[in-house]
Design goal:
- There is one protein chain.
- The protein is globular, with a radius of gyration of 17 Å.
- The chain is α/β, with parallel strands linked by helices and 198 residues long.
- The protein is built from eight helices and nine strands.
- The chain is 32% helix and 21% strand.
- It has a single domain, classed as P-loop containing nucleotide triphosphate hydrolases (Rossmann fold, 3-Layer(aba) Sandwich).
- Helix 5 packs across helix 7.
Length: 198
């Protein structure tokens, strides 16, 4: 991931089999990017509250630098905190909450800036994110293209950032968004990628 970012690639897919500790791997990546000031603020995007709560627990319990966890080193806005402030370095949010924040400017609230984050990490990016529906020429006359755009894609397209998808099972729609996997890791005990997590 770091090499691709250094090479200017702004969308990438990481495929790691179930049990290979995708979240922990990503947590180390996030810590390095924040510590080295490559990114100022990262959005960790999930499609369900349960995934966000699992990530939050990992961010609070896994040691990432010295004897500290990510949550001890940086201000982390948790899944239940809808707003972030200037000191927030990592924000865990659901796709649904981000869509709500993107559309609430209609009710007088300020719109989310496209440069609010420097990087979006999408956990389990294969799940719950359907392909945008294609419109026929006749439908273009009376329907807006935005009506067919998936919420997931709407959030990703709003922010001008590095986008990283994490998945165990790359699907056609995730490859269409993030590109072919830049890294693939299989197995569960002794991994094909050369790491032994026993």
């Amino acid at each position: 991931m770091e090499k691709h970012i250094a090479d200017g690639i702004r969308a990438m897919l990481v495929a790691m089999a179930t049990g290979t500790r995708k979240t922990v791997t990503c947590l180390g990546f996030i810590e390095r990017m924040l510590r080295n000031e490559r990114f100022n603020r990262i959005l960790f995007l999930v499609d369900r509250l349960a995934l966000g709560e699992q990530a939050e627990e990992k961010f609070k319990s896994e040691i990432v630098h010295g004897v500290n966890t990510l949550a001890q080193i940086y201000d982390v806005a948790t899944i239940d905190k809808p707003r972030i402030d200037a000191t927030t370095r990592l924000h865990i949010a659901t796709v649904q909450s981000m869509v709500h924040r993107l559309t609430e400017h209609d009710s007088g609230q300020s719109r989310l800036d496209p440069d609010l984050y420097d990087c979006i990490v999408v956990d389990e990016c294969h799940r719950g994110y359907s392909l945008d529906r294609s419109m026929t020429p006749g439908e273009l006359e009376f329907r807006s293209e935005a009506e067919y755009q998936s919420d997931y894609r709407r959030v990703l397209d709003h922010f001008d950032v590095v986008k990283i998808g994490l998945t165990a099972t790359p699907a056609a729609h995730t490859v269409a968004i993030f590109g072919a996997p830049i890294y693939t890791c299989g197995g569960s005990r002794t991994l094909h990628c050369g790491l032994d997590l026993r």
